[in-house]
Design goal:
The chain is mainly α and 387 residues long. The chain is built from 15 helices and 2 strands. It has a two-stranded antiparallel sheet. A hairpin with a 4-residue loop joins strand 1 and strand 2. Helix 10 packs across helix 11 and helix 14 packs across helix 15.
Length: 387
């Protein structure tokens, strides 16, 4: 299952017992697992996932999409006491119909897709790249992953209490802004980026801060806020966690237990150990610099994943050549003609991909195009179509 290509959600539901990360239906067990795998802190540890995930070179974004889908599904299962996949997908799309503004443009055009699986895949791709810091031109994925959890909380509120997801999201976002501002303002020596972040957040604060009465049913919400505070508490310079005074605003209104706070710190320290105590939940960075940095590794990832598929593509083209030669001596049957047509299309797909790759700047351009036009790759590169 490859969340970077078409068909991954359908494949997940076809084989979900193998890919299930959150096997329990107990909310406390799920919350602990969210922390244990690192999703709460923006860095997923593949060693904590089922063995099937170790057979494929997953990126952090791909893993986050899988966790994201499964947690939304768990919220649906627990609250509506249903495991009906079609009902879940319909309900989730209805939720996003409200949450995401509809405009006729290249970004929101996915709502016109008639295939619900494809529509949901496009929505997930969009949500993985959006967060309330997006206007600051940040492209930091750690924070993006953390903030994906807001959608999970909003979906819970939507199906449980029919709360407007936009109102709910605004409430949570304002709470997170206040927490971030509190940490940044209380730093001993804020750097230039910290000062820029403070200016940005203060200029984007909402005047509407009326609290929402939120249901504590699954209790994901309080754990999420605690995890966010713990992430902010890490000081890379001092190499220690510096917790705030929970009796002071904006922390005094947060409902939490000491045990859950200790659990969050415990699993966060595990993340720190595995990353040599280098952890930044937020880094302001230039989008183009990120593209250059990540493009070569993306091409390398594609080639590493698809060594076998490259051979398979070459073997299929050899078969095509044989059939074309045979056609000069005899009439091809219906199946052979169908195969020639299909393989010719595959060759046409392969040629532009290779041509782009060898152009000046192709190592940067190709991965960008593949993100938006994944069909440029031959179908044998799509793991989601494998039997």
């Amino acid at each position: 299952m490859n969340p970077s290509t078409n068909g991954w959600i359908k494949k997940y539901f076809t084989e979900k017992n193998q890919y299930q990360i959150f096997a329990s239906d107990n909310s406390e067990d799920i919350s602990t697992m969210v922390r244990k795998i690192g999703f709460s802190y923006g860095i997923i540890d593949i060693a904590e996932l089922p063995d099937i995930y170790k057979n494929f070179k997953y990126t952090q974004e791909e893993l986050s999409k899988i966790c994201y889908l499964q947690l939304l599904e768990k919220v649906f299962n627990i609250h509506l006491k249903s495991d009906d996949t079609d009902q879940f997908i319909t309900t989730l799309i209805d939720f996003y119909d409200i949450l995401i503004p509809h405009k006729t443009n290249i970004i929101t055009g996915f709502f016109n897709d008639k295939n619900p699986y494809s529509k949901l895949e496009n929505i997930f791709s969009l949500r993985c790249k959006e967060h309330f810091f997006s206007e600051s031109k940040s492209n930091d994925f750690v924070l993006n992953m953390i903030l994906l959890f807001i959608d999970i909380l909003a979906f819970e509120a939507y199906i449980n209490e029919k709360i407007d997801p936009n109102v709910f999201t605004q409430h949570i976002v304002e709470q997170l802004k206040e927490i971030t501002l509190s940490f940044k303002k209380n730093q001993n020596q804020p750097n230039k980026k910290d000062l820029q972040l403070i200016t940005f957040l203060e200029s984007n604060k909402s005047l509407d801060t009326d609290p929402i009465k939120l249901r504590p049913s699954i209790n994901f919400e309080s754990n999420f806020i605690i995890d966010y505070i713990v992430c902010n508490s890490w000081d890379n310079e001092a190499q220690e966690i510096e917790l705030p005074d929970f009796s002071q605003a904006p922390y005094s209104t947060i409902l939490y237990s000491e045990d859950k706070l200790k659990e969050s710190i415990f699993y966060f320290e595990k993340v720190l150990e595995k990353n040599n105590k280098e952890y930044y939940y937020y880094k302001s960075s230039n989008l183009f610099d990120n593209v250059i940095k990540n493009s070569s590794s993306y091409i390398e990832l594609l080639l590493t994943r698809n060594k076998g598929r490259l051979i398979k593509e070459l073997q299929k083209n050899t078969q095509l050549m044989k059939l074309l030669v045979d056609s000069t001596r005899r009439d091809l049957n219906k199946e052979e003609k169908k195969m020639v047509k299909k393989q010719t299309i595959e060759v046409i797909k392969t040629i532009p991909s290779l041509a782009i790759f060898i152009l000046p700047g192709g190592t940067i351009l190709l991965p960008i195009l593949l993100r938006f036009i994944p069909s440029l790759l031959p179908s044998s590169f799509n793991e989601n179509t494998d039997d």
